[in-house]
């Protein structure tokens, strides 16, 4: 079957429903329905493979029981069942912390909502979804690609764009961090799960050779997401990527737990993340942090926490805005702490257009390892490909655009690095001399000559004088008109 055509037809049906308003609602609606079909397909396979396996969903509410029959309930009966029985039951599923898949279902439906108003249109959507076999590996992989495109659509879905990091960026960061089965990998603000799925792909391509390797890899994954929509998208994404129990994705706010309470048992080998930036945490969250790190700026709090969470020799790759590099006050204290506790060995500077249209600010990829202080930082300036002015929705950043940086990187030890037009290094002494301002511009690029400052100032003063004369003339004309 053509999965892409099926998904497009589902979206077209949803657009006819008066209750579904905009991309974010349509994606949310799609997600809980896909989730129930995917988990039911997995359940049926697990029931065949494991004698004692029981689905986390009560029999009456399993997809096969109420949705799979094309001639099944529809219209008002379907809407009543979904709104008054299905949702209330799944939101309140009983179970303990050990019931991983049951907890996943409960967390997904905790704040989920059925936006559709027409039972006839919902039946049409259900029948389309039923046609997809998520136990068929090729269909699942194909759907996984479609799902990535659905997630990509979030970039233009208003504020929902904050949950999505371009896959070229997540794949590059996972490739450079090089996670391995058995290592504990944590994304404290996981959004739709892009870093997790890229890390999973990376490990399966390079290191997972046996079922024991797969089990070891899955046991090492950790993640948290505080908002309902991205949490639901993330869990569904992981199910599509063959993760049996995605209950390690906590529906919570990582920053809500006191900084001091993160102890040795919470330490991780790897942090891969794009923490929210430009946002402000609610009142009281900053009080969870030591006085010298207290701020309402979300990205700063995450950076402080990441340094604490890393084990000795642990490594991290983090997306941060330009403001973190040049900011002062708490930001200065944070950077000093980072450079004392960790070796911040690489900063990849990205062009403003990478995160368009959601954000148009300069962003940076920071790579660091805990345990030894920073002595020097290498900078690499990523540039938009020749013949293209900027990245856009129609011409986004792709993984192959990062290949020049990978070629320059210099292996695991980074000993072969050399300065070039887009790469340079600065020493810790230079950084301290600038009071930990890390916003170093490319020294190999000569700034454009904008002219002699004295001449420019004289022209500005002349323009201002002419503007003042015109303003006075206009004022006189208006006053004369009023006196008539």
Characteristics of this structure?
9 strands, 3 domains, nine-stranded mixed sheet, 45% helix, Ferritin, single chain, 484 residues, alpha/beta
Q: What would you say this structure looks like, in words?
A:
The chain is an alpha/beta fold and 484 residues long. The chain folds into three domains: 3-134, Ferritin; 154-433, Vaccinia Virus protein VP39 (Rossmann fold), CATH 3.40.50; 451-484. It has 17 helices and nine strands. The protein has a nine-stranded mixed β-sheet with strand order 3-2-1-4-5-7-6-8-9, with helices on both faces. α4 (75-91) crosses α6 (119-130) and α5 (100-110) crosses α11 (228-240). The chain is globular, with a radius of gyration of 26 Å. It starts with a helix and ends with a helix. The mean pLDDT is 89.
Tell me the radius of gyration. 26 Å
- Average predicted confidence as pLDDT: 89
Binned, the helix content reads 40-55%
CATH architecture of the largest domain: 3-Layer(aba) Sandwich
β-strand percent reads: 5-15%
Strand runs, count: 9
* Sequence of secondary-structure elements: HHHHHHHHEHHEHEEHEHHEEEHEHH
Number of helical regions: 17
CATH H-tier superfamily of the largest domain:
Vaccinia Virus protein VP39
Largest beta sheet: strand ordering = 3-2-1-4-5-7-6-8-9
Largest β sheet strand count, sense and barrel closure: 9 strands, mixed
What is the highest CATH level, the class of the largest domain?
Alpha Beta
Strand pairing plus helix content: what structural class?
alpha/beta
Q: Into how many domains do the coordinates divide?
A: 3
């Amino acid at each position: 079957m053509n999965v892409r055509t099926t998904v497009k037809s589902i979206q077209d049906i949803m657009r006819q429903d008066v209750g579904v308003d905009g991309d974010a609602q349509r994606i949310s609606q799609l997600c809980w329905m896909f989730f129930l079909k995917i988990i039911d397909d997995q359940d049926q396979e697990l029931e065949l493979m494991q004698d004692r396996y029981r689905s986390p969903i009560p029999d009456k509410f399993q997809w096969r029981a109420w949705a799979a029959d094309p001639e099944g309930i529809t219209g008002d009966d379907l809407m009543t069942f979904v709104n008054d029985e299905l949702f209330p039951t799944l939101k309140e599923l009983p179970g303990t912390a050990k019931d991983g898949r049951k907890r996943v279902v409960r967390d997904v439906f905790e704040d989920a909502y059925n936006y559709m108003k027409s039972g006839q249109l919902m039946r049409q959507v259900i029948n389309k979804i039923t046609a997809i076999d998520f136990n068929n590996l090729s269909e699942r992989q194909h759907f996984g690609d479609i799902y990535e495109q659905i997630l990509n659509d979030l970039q233009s879905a208003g504020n929902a764009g904050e949950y999505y990091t371009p896959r070229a960026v997540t794949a590059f960061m996972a490739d450079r961090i090089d996670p391995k089965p058995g290592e504990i990998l944590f994304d404290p603000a996981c959004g739709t799960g892009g870093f997790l799925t890229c890390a999973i792909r990376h490990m399966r391509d390079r290191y997972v050779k046996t079922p024991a390797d797969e089990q070891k890899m899955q046991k090492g994954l950790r993640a948290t997401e505080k908002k309902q929509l991205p949490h639901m998208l993330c869990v569904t994404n992981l199910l599509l990527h063959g993760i049996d129990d995605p209950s390690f994705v906590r529906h919570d706010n990582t920053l809500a737990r006191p900084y001091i309470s993160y102890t040795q048992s919470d330490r991780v080998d790897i942090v891969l993340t794009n923490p929210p930036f430009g946002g402000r945490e609610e009142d009281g969250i900053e009080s969870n942090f030591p006085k010298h790190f207290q701020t309402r700026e979300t990205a700063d709090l995450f950076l402080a926490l990441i340094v604490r969470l890393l084990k000795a020799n642990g490594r991290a790759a983090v997306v941060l805005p330009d403001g973190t590099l040049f900011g002062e006050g708490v930001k200065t204290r944070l950077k000093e702490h980072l450079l004392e506790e960790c070796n911040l060995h690489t900063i990849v500077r990205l062009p403003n257009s990478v995160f368009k249209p959601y954000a148009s600010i300069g962003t940076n990829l920071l790579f660091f390892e805990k345990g030894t202080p920073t002595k020097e930082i290498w900078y690499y300036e990523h540039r938009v490909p020749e013949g293209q002015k900027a990245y856009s929705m129609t011409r986004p950043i792709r993984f192959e655009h990062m290949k020049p940086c990978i070629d320059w990187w210099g292996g695991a030890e980074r000993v072969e690095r050399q300065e070039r037009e887009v790469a340079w290094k600065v020493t810790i002494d230079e950084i301290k001399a600038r009071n930990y301002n890390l916003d170093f511009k490319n020294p190999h690029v000569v700034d454009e000559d904008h002219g002699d400052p004295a001449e420019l100032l004289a022209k500005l003063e002349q323009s201002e004088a002419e503007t003042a004369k015109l303003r006075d003339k206009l004022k006189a004309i208006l006053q004369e008109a009023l006196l008539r």
